[in-house]
Amino acid sequence: MAIPKLRPHQAEAGRAILESVFERKGLTFTVEVARQGGKNELSAQLEVLLLTLHIGAGGNGVKCSPTFKPQTVTSMMRLKERLNDAGYGRSWKSEHGYIIRLGRARQLFFSADKAANVVGATAHLLLEVDEAQDVAGDKYQKEFRPMGASTNVTTVLYGTAWDDSSLLERIKQSNLELERRDGVRRHFEYDWQEVARYNPDYRRFVEGERERLGHSHPLFLTQYCLKPLHGGGGFLSAAQLAQLQGDHCRRRVFGARGVFVAGIDLAGEAEGIEDAALRALKPAQDSTVVTIGRLDFSGCDAVIKEPRIEVVEHYWWTGTPHTDLYPRLVDLLRNVWGCKRVAVDATGVGQGVAGFLASALGKSVVVPLAFSAQSKSRLGFALLSAINAGRLKMYATDGSEEHREFWLQMERAKSHYRPNQTMNFYVDLARGHDDFLISLALLVEAASDYQPRQARGVVREREA
Question: What pTM was computed for the model?
Fold first, then answer.
């Protein structure tokens, strides 16, 4: 049976799914489509067709998403729109906030959040899992998979790649193994280039994302190329470390025109011995690191909107009380460098320092960032984007302790990928610290938040 309004890649997967439904094969399919490539439209069209075919006989279709809002709600809205398009505007009914009924047939929508109570429903027509890479495996196996046991229901898991431990990746690999055994296709995969064959606007959009993020960025690799990530690996590849290396000199003494920003990773306080002596006695002691960057807007245009960032100086304090740091930070940031933006770690004890700096430098200058899984993930992705695009460069080798520590942390940095397209980046405590790494990420945050004042098309720069 033909599926209307679908592009060839959508129709190919749709036909296989419907064959399993109509012949009661009870197969489990995995469908990976590049972001915004049409998997949700395929799902909605399948639901309309199955509701239509069972309008008199009845039966339930079941679909779950990682969250009720916005993902499940979005799926319900799309189904309602497609039912209206099919001429059922006066026929379908909404029940209990999660059911759409057409005659005696119903489509049930659930959240797959770990806390959601979904036990008890039965899937007769089709069982669907949206964004399956973000659904917990035990939630699926214990609560959703049994919904189709008594009916031998056909199951479809939709999504994009993420890490190699996700539910979608595990079932994909199982499907590929089954395909090798019996020749029955169960996995359908369409990357951005396949989708772009039928949509020139989509091609232009994704090519812009590739330019913005870099072809090796985790989000580009997973969401558009459908390449799974390997968790626990290095944060920066050898190629990215090479891209980060610049050839400009470190500026220990301020003496040039420019727009400067800073990233500050704050340490906890430790009284007594300071700096190099403390680092030698207590190598596990955390430090405060300030990274100063100069912004270069000369390469900005309609495509490249972010400035180039040159790391020009580092300040590194270990064991220095915050009360002693306050005047140093204010003097360096305001009087020495005239920083236009300062992004500071405002987590825990950092909240007080961030508040003090905002009072001294101005709330429009200081960008406080309290770390959470989401905010730190955003920092990590932005740092990778800046490196991949060649916009972030470290000063040339100068033989300093700061330079050596910086590169040590960059080389030792690791990444861990989590559900919902979030990541953590860090240096294992057994191997050192990540003060310079986090300070660098905060520097990129400070740069992204700054828009230069312009007069007659020229950026005003502070005189030395």
Answer: 0.73
